[in-house]
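Hi P.,

Sorry for the delay on this. The queue was packed all week, but I finally got your sequence through. Input first:
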Amino acid sequence: MWAPSSCGLVRNNEGYHCSHLNETDNHCTIYNKRPLDCQLYPFLLVKRGSSLSLGLHKSCCFIEEKKPSLQDIRDYVDYLKKRVSTPGIVSLLKSNPQLAADYQGNVEIVAELQELYKKAYLPRLKKLTLQDKPLIDSYLLMHVTNLSAYHFANIYIWKDLFHISWAKIENSLCIFYQDGIGVFMPLAPLGKGNALTIKKCFEIMDTYNENREISRIENIPEKNLALYTRIGLKPKLKDTEYICARKSLVTLPGDSYKHKRSSYNYFVKNYNAELVEYKNSYYEECLTLYRSWSRQRKAACKDSIYQQMLEDGLASFKAALGYYQKLGLSGYVVKVDAEIKGCSLGYPLNQETFCILFEVCDLQLKGIAQFIFREFCKKLHGYTHINMMGESALESLKKVKLSYRPVKEARVYSAYEK
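Then the structure:
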């Protein structure tokens, strides 16, 4: 039996009636102040999962007796769709979410109200700006990790490829990326994330995504997978990141690093090179270097995924250079005869681990990659490990990473709905 959530039921001889019904004349005693659900009736706000709809209660005596035309119903539905989207109704729904329910008995769905659902039932997603960095950093500090995704710089530099937003959900801070395909999370909820937090994140993503297969949380540490599987999500390996001992990268000891030493020594012997800390005046020259390096890489590797990575990388490289200091990056360039031929940028993940985010070189100069990597590592005093990031499912890239003899392989996962 249907009844408005804010009204009580009183038993009478025929069953029940509203406590505000005047039985003498069958009029409502609070008509001018009647609750929203009474104002809408015989239309109902129907909430099922992560959807909100307008339903028509066909058992209403008015509908059964008067039998309004389909056009009349459509016209009134159009009026109601506008009315329930007004700020006052949105605010009322936020304060009283129970006004919408999963009504079943003889209720016909007549309109979808997904935009209203987003406004009334979902946390407001705020656009990520540089001013949010202190807040995001405070949550990132709760996670001691070696994974490259858990730094503000690696979140923010993709701003030209994604609309980046965030929201606080159940004492956690959650980051969302959105593009023309849909919405996903580039890293797990930050803070005291729990099963309820994760479920609400998927509810948000599913509301925006027509295809639920797009909804996912990326860069989940392997040690945290149990929580996701326990609530029925499907984990999938996203990437493997390679972490090396900084001391080995600096000293290049033994036969296993023989080729690296040889390439480094060749470069030092044959080129008039110097390592210089990056500064803003190098911006344009470094962008030109990236474009040249990208063309060289594309010529050497025809893999379509890798080529798209190079295209996307330009936008993120621009952001990293443009906001270098504000993002907390460190970096160096290699000058050969006073011309920039190499550039490398990175950031600290914790007190022990530093992540190399970009390494861009003129590949025509033999040994320059080995030179800039080794020299950068020499500058990173106090860090014991270097994260070289992942392989991106590319065997050639995996081979390069493994050639530096990583001491740890950190697997990162994405979680999807089944």
